[in-house]
């Protein structure tokens, strides 16, 4: 989002009679507390409207407002910028001057010269940038989804009809038939457009159920006739180099899918025999650029802590959280920052989810004797500067990793703990000597994923007593004094609209807690009789704040809801 310089905004609003200087300073303090921009705070508090703020931006930067929703957009113009690029760059084509080869593009940040130059290379057209709100951009992006839904339904209908009429001998032959090929391609394309993380193909008694996991929740997409199951599963097995004629044992594989626009997606395949046939789950692993740290959802203070932690030359950094909490995404984002020509980065993973250029990635293979522990021993002979161990699961791996961190290597790994401080007793329980944990542990990051409120249907409301009580109860458990608890005046949620499929949510972000290990905390780790609660109190005095508190800031900013934050921290 583009922002207006604070002094300029202050001058305009005070002169316009929107607020006094004292009121502006109060809102400024709130913005600092929430680690946000004062413009966003003034909009959320209703001091100014979003449209008025964007008019100020337009006047200041001398860039016209798009007003792209005031007329219908030609699908051909929209298609000049592929959907994946439009979503990633927050830039949508809405008009085209054919005579001058000039493409008008609505952007969230029309001052972004790199994006403009990239779009000019991509489209072969001169780009004229226009300013547009993120809400309106989301509506424009939904046009892509509407088009892909119509196309998907049409392809599926024709493919299912043709597949039902197929008369072939043998599953391998059926797997190569055009209707089956088109049906699977359509499913994968639609999953990519829907930003799904997984495709579930589930055999029922008389039909096949297809569901996508979108923003952490499964959503029904289609139902097919049961007779298509075997050739469809055979097609997936063929692509994944699995045994087509084996039906009664689980099989795992992988294949790569490339879209017409050149987007590469790896699909990790799991096939499991069920009561009514073989069930397939395909995990979509997009080979896109790693997210930046702010894109992960790190607020300013957390961002500075992470940057400081990863700038060290040795020691260990752990990312904690349950499966599906975004740990791998965070690790890859950090590695992309550290990935420089003068640095040797080696990883050992199970599985390798994303290939990273210039990073030496090793896949665990227990059948061949390549475990995390044996791989880590070999890595130490490869002259690494930075080591990533996908997960520390046992004493042997934990000890080798800790010794590596002690001998001049920067080590990253993950642990399954509920919060950051619990990583300390977990390592000790694994058998790592206390003095080694104290000497090597630099930082622990714990995280969860929460759904973001849909920008198209967001609204504010006054909190109920039950919601206020839930916040107070959770904060008191965390050790916050009652007199220090501040309850926001307004809460936010989504009404539900076509863009968010009625859920009120669109997209996900992270909530985080960052625990920096200072000298006092190191002494506590190395001392006899480690006391976790006392450790948390001292950490809190040093600036440690919990995921729940990070989530409350994002709730107050209108990024997520209280329900999502409570759900995430109670996982």
Oligomer: single chain
Number of alpha- plus pi-helical segments: 23
Question: Beta-strand percentage?
Answer: 15-25%
Average of pLDDT: 92
CATH class of the largest domain: Alpha Beta
Q: How many distinct beta strands?
A: 18
Principal-axis shape equals globular
CATH architecture of the largest domain: 3-Layer(aba) Sandwich
Q: Give the strand line-up of the largest sheet.
A: 12-11-13-14-10-15-18
CATH homologous superfamily of the largest domain - what is it? P-loop containing nucleotide triphosphate hydrolases
Major sheet details: 7 strands, mixed
The tally of structural domains comes to: 4
Helix content: 40-55%
Can you tell me the residue ranges where pLDDT is under 50 for at least 5 consecutive residues? none
Distance between the termini: 32 Å
Radius of gyration based on Cα positions: 26 Å
By CATH, the topology of the largest domain is Rossmann fold
């Amino acid at each position: 989002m583009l922002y207006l310089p604070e002094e300029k905004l202050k001058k305009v609003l005070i002169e316009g009679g929107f607020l006094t200087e004292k009121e502006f300073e109060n809102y400024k303090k709130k913005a600092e507390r929430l680690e946000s921009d004062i413009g966003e705070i003034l909009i959320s508090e209703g001091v100014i409207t979003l449209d008025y703020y964007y008019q100020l931006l337009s006047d200041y930067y001398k860039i016209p407002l798009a007003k792209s929703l005031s007329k219908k957009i030609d699908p051909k113009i929209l298609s000049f910028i592929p959907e994946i690029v439009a979503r990633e760059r927050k830039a949508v084509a809405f008009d085209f001057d054919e005579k001058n080869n000039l493409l008008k593009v609505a952007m969230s940040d029309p001052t972004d010269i790199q994006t403009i130059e990239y779009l000019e290379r991509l489209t072969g057209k001169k780009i004229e940038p226009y300013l547009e709100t993120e809400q309106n951009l989301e509506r424009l992006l939904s046009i892509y989804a509407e088009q892909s839904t119509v196309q998907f339904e049409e392809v599926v209908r024709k493919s299912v009809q043709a597949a039902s009429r197929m008369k072939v001998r043998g599953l391998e032959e059926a797997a190569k038939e055009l209707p089956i090929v088109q049906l699977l391609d359509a499913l994968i394309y639609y999953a990519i457009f829907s930003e799904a993380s997984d495709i579930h193909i589930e055999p029922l008694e008389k039909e096949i159920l297809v569901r996508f996991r979108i923003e952490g929740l499964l959503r029904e997409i289609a139902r097919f006739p049961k007779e298509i199951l075997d050739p469809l599963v055979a097609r997936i097995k063929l692509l994944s180099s699995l045994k087509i004629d084996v039906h009664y044992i689980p099989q795992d594989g992988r294949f790569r899918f490339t879209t017409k626009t050149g987007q590469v997606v790896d699909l990790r395949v799991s096939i499991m025999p069920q009561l009514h046939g073989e069930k397939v789950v395909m995990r979509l692993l997009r080979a896109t650029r790693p997210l930046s740290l702010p894109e992960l959802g790190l607020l300013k203070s957390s961002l500075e802590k992470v940057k400081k932690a990863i700038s060290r030359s040795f020691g260990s950094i752990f990312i904690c959280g349950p499966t599906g909490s975004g740990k791998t995404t965070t690790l890859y984002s950090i590695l992309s920052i550290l990935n420089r020509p003068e640095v040797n980065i080696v990883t050992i993973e199970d599985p390798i989810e994303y290939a990273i250029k210039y990073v030496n990635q090793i896949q665990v293979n227990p059948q061949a004797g390549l475990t995390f522990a044996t791989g880590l021993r070999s890595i130490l002979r490869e002259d690494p500067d930075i080591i990533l161990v996908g997960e520390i699961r046992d004493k042997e791996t934990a000890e080798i990793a800790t010794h590596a961190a002690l001998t001049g290597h920067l080590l990253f790994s993950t642990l399954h703990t509920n919060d950051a401080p619990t990583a300390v007793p977990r390592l000790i329980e694994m058998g790592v000597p206390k003095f080694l944990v104290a000497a090597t542990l630099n930082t622990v990051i714990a995280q969860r994923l929460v759904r973001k409120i849909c920008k198209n249907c967001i609204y504010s409301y006054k909190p109920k007593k039950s919601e206020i009580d839930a916040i107070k109860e959770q904060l008191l458990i965390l050790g916050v004094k009652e007199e220090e608890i501040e309850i926001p005046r307004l809460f936010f949620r989504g009404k539900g609209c076509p863009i968010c499929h009625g859920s009120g949510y669109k997209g996900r972000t992270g909530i985080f807690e960052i625990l920096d290990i200072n000298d006092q905390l190191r002494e506590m780790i190395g001392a006899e009789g480690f006391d976790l609660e006392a450790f948390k109190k001292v950490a809190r005095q040093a600036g440690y704040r919990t995921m729940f508190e990070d989530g409350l800031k994002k709730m107050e900013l209108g990024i997520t809801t209280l329900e999502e934050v409570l759900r995430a921290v109670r996982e």
